[in-house]
Amino acid sequence: MSRANSPTLRGTRLGTVLRLWNPIMKRLLASRLHWPWSRYFLLLSWTGRKTGARYTTPVSYVRGAGDLYLTTGDRWWRNVAGGGPVELRLLGRRRAAWATPITDREASISLHEQLFRDHPWFRLLAGIPAEATGEPDQAEVARSVDAGRVLVRVSPGRSGVHARNESEHAG
């Protein structure tokens, strides 16, 4: 089965926990009580390509090189495939942003490993075990990407044509 057709959390214990926890997290992140949750989680909103409906989900994030990075095993990223506008509720504030999924396998694995190394809690939330050295288990990262885990680069404050042109050259 292809990466795009096989979300990694569906049918797992973590997927069940998230399905129950997400409605609570959405309310917390949208409220004045967002702190300390908003240090690690944000609300991501996008418009469905086929339905035109507006969707919002809480996601964990890390910062890197001026952008935010999200990792997901769900299918929402398809709505921004090739790059697309999103809205963030980050640290209690709404911000326009541009999201670009990193679908190149090798680039995704490499960047996942780097982010998991730099932010061990991000690795834990993704369900990736560590090796004895504390490094992310490289084989497990590769398996996770092959099973459908996708890394999404989000550039806050960017939207429209300018961000689209940058995403074409960012790779």
Sequence of secondary-structure elements: HEEEEEEHHHEH
CATH topology: Pnp Oxidase, Chain A
**Shape field:** globular
Q: Distance N terminus to C terminus? A: 25 Å
What is the class in the CATH system?
A: Mainly Beta
Largest beta sheet: what is the strand line-up?
2-1-5-6-7-4-3
**Could you name the CATH homologous superfamily?**
Electron Transport, Fmn-binding Protein, Chain A
Q: How many domain modules?
A: 1
Instruction: Specify the CATH architecture.
Output: Roll
Mean pLDDT rating: 84
Total helices: the number is 5
Low-confidence stretches: 1-7, 161-171
Instruction: Describe the sheet with the most strands.
Output: 7 strands, antiparallel
Structural class: alpha+beta
Count the strands? Answer: 7
Task: Please tell me how large the radius of gyration is.
Answer: 15 Å
Helix-residue proportion: 25-40%
- The proportion of strand residues reads 25-35%
